Amino acid sequence: MKTCVAADFSKSGKWVDAGCGWTLQFICYRQPVSMHVIKVWLQKPNSDVDLNDPAFLDELLVKMKKEMRDKGLDDNIQLSWKKQPDGQVFHKEEEKRDEL
């Protein structure tokens, strides 16, 4: 047995029985997603490491997710890199000079 309902906006949007064969407008809903952006600065232990190498980036995400899980964050957290317009994730920070 099918039971179909519709929102009747002439009755403040209350649910009312509706024929399952009726063609009506519909509303879709999904849980809102919370997104946070975190800036990361890295210091290279040696100059041979390419910080934008996909294998390095993947390994770093796995380690970061494990660290977050170990600190009690939800296991279904999704991490990703935000690529800049040039396609790179990390850029070398220019040294700041003090002007006299």
Automatic annotation (TrEMBL):
InterPro entries xref list: C-type_lectin_CS (IPR018378), CTDL_fold (IPR016187)
SUPFAM superfamilies reported for this sequence: C-type lectin-like
Domain of life: Eukaryota
Protein's name in the database: Uncharacterized protein
Organism annotation: Pagothenia borchgrevinki (Bald rockcod)
